[in-house]
Specification:
Helix content is 60%, strand content 10%. It is elongated.
Length: 964
């Protein structure tokens, strides 16, 4: 299999802990020494370091002269690698120190740090060597250099990964590595294992959720029941098994039962009967070796059993360990059970076995026999384990409880408990809860990482989470590991056929590997259609472990597999772009993004197009000048929909460069398209003179090219700008020519527009004729536009038609129908993300609602729009409508001063952009409000006189209520 072969190349990547050590003043020790004495001294120091490291499960990966680097968590994958490194560091400093040739004992400086590291084998000459690469190595070395003689400096990052109780004290200062500042702490004691004495005190806050599971566990542990019982808690890493067990065990009164705890250890999986030895050792803890031997002789053991256990348990000096070998494994397990029951001494006992999946097989046999014995007084046995241990759990325990991810409401309660209210943001908290996906440990680590500044955003993965997943990944078989790494690069729901094609396998050939991933809780059960990793964080953490060259190769294979399985790949272009970019095939990535953007544009998916546009701009910046044509293509394609979303700052950033580039090409179609887009932004921003010039030039090019699409886009921009400038009759004439063009086959043609062109043209025509008082004609045009938009299922054209229709209905004083019409348009905008028009709709709806006596509803609608910031991402006409509608609503509620302030804003805006139509509307509204509240105010006559002059100059009709 290609992917597995690739896994053997390059470095292995995972989060591990590095220990850097150096002999203090080594040259002083050997300055006057014979070379052989010096070498002997270094050899003894090396042996001491190696012994301390390997006893803790680490490995010296480099050692030169008087110091070296040790790795913990590689090649054996331990989740507690940081604890092991701290234990080894303590043993190095506080073990037997060899004296140097000068007679003084050797002292050491030690630094400990955790982080993502690449470890690789390489050859130097004829020797195979190990090499660790990554910032973590340099940080550990820097910590070691800064440590005082005889001290151990541990980074806060390594301390965070420790699972046991670690006593740390502040150091004298922070350690600077490049641009990073590392918080350094001083290790003050050897790490303590999480044993019986502190297990139930490990968690300070109360348990959230798990009421049913806790009730089941309480029933099992009920000491007064008088019968032995056993139960297993099974769930994926971080699900809360230990927390649940600690809660239940913490409720047991100390004098009601003895509690013994044993934790499985990956470093001791080959130590036979490790759990039995430890549990019996706890019961014999206060006895001397002679007393232990006496206990064995006084127990109800056969002589052969006593002899075997004396070797296994008492470990008396001078006795051969071969004695234990005279019994079979089953006989030895039964003898250990008999001894344990004898040592219970008629006292109820509870045993907690944590991490069943890390137990040796002999310990599992001992526990199965012990659970089946049902001794008196009663014994309670509680097991916790990962999903891969479920068969072993069933072989030992009477009852089994599977812990599923916590429901979202309980995760949210937990988040509130973990994150103080004065430090959290509600929207961030919700996203953190979603990202944790029901796993309490992940939630806790995400919140800590965000609160402490370890990560800059919720999408970064804390190393404490990566570390656990990396360790679990390396418990898989190499083929299953390669499979989950491949899955981590694919979409969330991947079809088995696609995965098999990517890996050069058949679906049947991968079945055993899929089952292994399911057993280890990496994936959900395989269905006939898709396979899916259990959590997004698993994908992210597994992807971190793939070496760069292999990752690029896998992405290329994924792209090839998508093309092979799905043919033309319609609907898959974004996936293909993702894989091409990740494979550093940037030109291909841009081509795929452009095709994906085209699909989004055809579907009027503005938000999707916006995201694709941003990705494309990022790649174009990396590619440089050779991608200039794609730059033009993307901007011109996305422009209208970006404006629809209110992305004015973005389009203003890119459009000038596009204009420069398209004029240089000499291609009139591109020049015309760019000019049309410039006209649109000028219209929205009130730059009317510039907009007219751009739109007229674009229209001239369109007519010369006989391009209906370009005629439509340039005419729409030109007529809207003319209308806002008060040149309404010309706007009507130009729009009528456009409506006449868009007939026959062009009636329903899309022409690359965001809405059906004819429906759009009819809606704007309605707007224009209403401006000159032709309300009935405006109503007919708006209804025709709406009928066409609904018939062709075009949501954006429907919004434009409803906006025009609602405005006309307001002028006809059919306000209830208008309010309903605007409400329907707003629902479409909320559903489809048409943000640019939301302020306009809110303002017009507020006008209709106010005239229905629903001013409070109108005010709430406008203020919600303001809170959402839609007025900052739209055009000047839209902002004007929002102010005007707000003013009328405030006046209807009796808040005259605020109403006049809002109207002053609207009038100032209209004057600033020189829009007679807006000014006529605003002056009329202010005169009516003043007439109702202050009939003698001289401003009324001034406003009406100015309104009359504007109407006479521009042919505009000033609306007034019937009977006014």
């Amino acid at each position: 299999m290609v992917a597995v072969a690739a896994a053997g190349r390059g470095a292995e990547r995972r989060v591990i802990t590095l220990l850097a050590v150096d002999i203090v003043n080594s040259t002083v020790h050997i300055a006057a020494a014979d070379p052989e004495d010096a070498q002997e001294f270094f050899d003894r120091c090396f042996a001491h370091l190696k012994r301390s490291v390997e006893r803790a499960g680490g490995r010296l990966v480099s050692y030169e002269g008087d110091g070296g680097i040790a790795a913990f968590g590689w090649p054996l994958a331990f989740e507690d690698h940081a604890d092991r490194a701290c234990a080894a560091a303590w043993d190095i400093q506080h073990g037997r120190h060899e004296a140097g040739p000068d007679g003084r004992p050797a002292r050491f400086r030690v630094g400990v740090h955790s982080g993502l590291t690449a470890v690789r084998h390489f050859r130097r000459g004829d020797r195979s060597r190990l090499n660790t690469v990554g910032a973590a190595v340099h940080v550990a070395a820097k910590l070691q250099q800064c440590a005082p003689p005889g001290e151990i400096l541990v980074s806060a990052q390594a301390a965070r990964l420790c699972r046991s109780s670690v006593e740390l004290k502040p150091s004298d200062g922070k350690v600077i590595v490049g641009d990073a500042t590392i918080e350094a702490l001083r290790l003050a004691a050897r790490p303590e294992s999480l044993g019986t004495t502190n297990f139930t005190q490990r968690y300070g806050a109360p348990l959230i959720g798990r009421a049913d599971e806790l009730a089941t566990l309480r029933r099992c542990l009920a000491i007064a029941a008088g019968q032995a019982s056993s139960i297993a808690l099974i769930g994926e890493a971080g699900i809360g098994k230990s927390r649940l067990a600690a809660t239940a065990l913490g409720e047991i009164e100390p004098d009601a039962a003895r509690v013994l705890v044993f934790r499985g250890d990956a470093h001791r999986r080959s130590t036979s009967f490790a759990a039995a030895r430890a549990l019996i050792g706890d019961l014999l803890a206060d006895r001397s070796s002679e007393d232990r031997a006496a206990v064995l002789r006084s127990s109800r053991l056969e002589p052969a059993e006593a002899d075997a256990l004396e070797v296994l348990i008492a470990e008396r000096p001078g006795r051969s360990r071969q004695g234990a070998g005279r019994l079979t494994q089953t006989q030895l397990a039964r003898a250990l059970v008999k001894l344990f029951i004898a040592l219970m001494e008629a006292r109820p006992t509870v045993i907690l076995i944590e991490d069943l999946h890390l137990l040796d097989s002999e310990s599992r046999q001992f526990l199965a026999l012990l659970a089946a014995t049902r001794p008196q007084p009663p014994l309670r046995l509680v097991l916790t384990g990962r999903p891969e241990a479920i068969d072993d759990a069933r072989g030992i325990a009477e009852a089994l409880v599977r812990l599923d991810p916590l429901p979202r409401d309980e995760m949210k309660k937990l988040a509130h408990q973990l994150w103080p209210e004065d430090h959290r943001n509600a929207s961030v908290l919700d996203r953190v809860v979603d990202r944790a996906d029901g796993i309490p440990f992940v939630l806790e680590e995400l919140i800590h990482a965000l609160a402490s500044g370890e990560v800059s955003g919720i999408h970064a993965l804390p190393q404490s989470v990566s570390s656990v997943i990396h360790a679990r990944l390396h418990h898989l078989s190499p083929p299953a590991r390669a499979l989950v790494q491949a899955l981590s690069l694919l979409e969330e729901n991947a079809e088995p056929e696609l995965v098999a094609t990517m890996m050069g396998e058949t679906v049947a050939g991968l079945r055993e590997r899929f089952l292994e991933l399911e057993r280890f809780a990496f994936t959900h059960p395989l269905t006939g259609e898709t396979t899916r990793l259990r959590h997004q964080i698993i994908a992210e953490a597994c992807a971190e472990t793939i070496p760069r060259d292999q990752r690029r190769d896998l992405h290329r294979r994924a792209g090839a597999a998508i093309r092979a399985v799905y043919g033309a790949a319609a609907g898959r272009f974004e996936q293909l772009a993702f894989h091409a970019e990740a494979a550093s095939d940037l030109t291909d990535a841009l081509d795929y993004l452009f095709q994906a953007a085209g699909e989004a544009r055809r579907n009027a998916a503005a938000a999707s197009l916006n995201a694709l546009f941003d990705r494309a701009m990022g790649i174009i910046e990396r590619v440089g000048d050779s991608a200039q044509q794609r730059y033009v293509d993307f901007v011109l394609m996305a422009f209208a929909l970006l404006v629809q979303l209110g992305e004015f700052e973005k389009v203003n950033r890119y459009l000038p460069r596009v204009m420069e580039l398209v004029r240089a090409t000499g291609r009139p179609d591109l020049v015309g398209s760019a000019l049309s887009q410039l006209g649109m932004i000028c219209w929205f921003e009130g730059r009317y003179e510039e907009g007219v010039r751009a739109s007229e030039e674009a229209l001239a090019i369109a007519n010369e090219l006989k391009s209906p699409a370009l005629v439509f886009s340039s005419t729409i921009m030109l007529t809207n700008i003319l209308h806002d400038m008060g040149r309404v009759e010309r706007a009507i004439a130009e729009e009528r020519k456009l409506c006449d063009l868009l007939t026959g086959e062009l009636e329903t043609a899309r022409l690359g527009a965001t809405g059906i062109p004819r429906a759009t043209a009819l809606a704007f025509m309605s707007w224009f004729v209403v401006e000159v008082g032709r309300y009935d004609e405006g109503l007919d045009l708006a209804l025709h536009a709406l009928e066409l938009a609904v018939r062709e299922a075009d949501p954006y054209a429907e919004v434009l038609a409803r906006n025009a229709l609602g405005r006309t209905l307001v002028y006809l004083e059919r306000n209830f129908e208008a309010a309903e019409c605007f409400a329907a348009a707003r629902r479409i905008c909320d559903r489809d993300g048409y943000d640019a028009i939301k302020a306009h709709l809110a303002g017009r709806a507020a006008t209709a609602l106010s005239r229905l006596g629903r001013s409070d509803e109108a005010i709430s609608l406008v203020e919600n729009c303001l809170r959402q910031g839609y007025h900052r991402r739209t055009g000047q006409l839209e902002v004007f409508c929002l102010h005007a509608g707000y003013a009328e609503a405030l006046a209807a509620r009796g808040d005259l001063e605020r109403a006049l302030e809002e109207l002053a804003e609207a009038i100032a805006l209209a004057r600033r952009i020189a829009s007679p139509c807006m000014l006529v509307e605003a002056l009329g509204l202010r005169s009516r409000i003043l007439a109702a509240a202050r009939p003698s105010d001289p401003a009324i006559a001034e406003d009406l006189a100015e309104q009359a002059r504007l109407c006479a100059d521009h042919g505009i009709f000033a609306w007034s209520p019937r009977g006014a």
